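Entry:
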Amino acid sequence: MKYDYLTNELTDWYKMAQERDRLAIQHSESILGAEMAVFVQGMGLSRTLLDFVLHGEGQVHDEALKAKMGVADRMFLLLWASWHDTLTGRYTAAAEHWRSLLEAPNFLLAFTWDPSLAERWIKGDDVKFEKVRKAIRNALKDEGSSDFAREWDQRHLRDDRAVQAFSHTSTKAIYSMLATATDERGNLGYQLRSELSVDRTRELCIFLAKDAWELARACGAAFSDNTKVAELWGGPGKILLEENIGRLTDALSELEAPSAAVKS
């Protein structure tokens, strides 16, 4: 046909993009430190806990349990998507999920402490994050932890505000994630395409690894009435959490140390 040559040119980018992703992931994995193993273990534990619940319950009919399973599974998938986008240098796409990753563990805990909230949510009611935070605040206060409840709420409110912009078409979401380069005249500019940065890849992967363990922690609490979940999370799960959070702290300190600065 007349425009066959153009059609081929317009579709070749897809194969090229797939090959670029393969090479980018290979390179990114080679420069990651402890954060990669920590992420893999956190995701593996989260998946195992979810499988215990699914296989133990079979077809889920309980509305609150169905809501919790849906939230946990969605967070797992978003973590995987954000990890993949980070390894390929698509930092803007990876950041799109940050707010959901921040909110999901809190939804799990709120639905656990207030099943009626989960039932309203799964029926289509608009359960905003403020209601979720309020449910957790009240639960913490009921346990006699008023000061901790206030500190927890303020910290999560700050975190939520910090990531909100990345869920919208904002200048912060776009330009803070773009790679920069200096031209021959010394002018600093943005590169409007995916570019791998060693430091940025490692930093974002460290935080995603932490999120993977936040999911595991939330699943351990949300599904603690399942015997297998209680045994795995209550024993080795919590020990691994403490060890791996320590490894991430060390990895972040190593990355932030002046002597560890690496130019991409």
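Residues 227-256 form the longest helix (30 residues).
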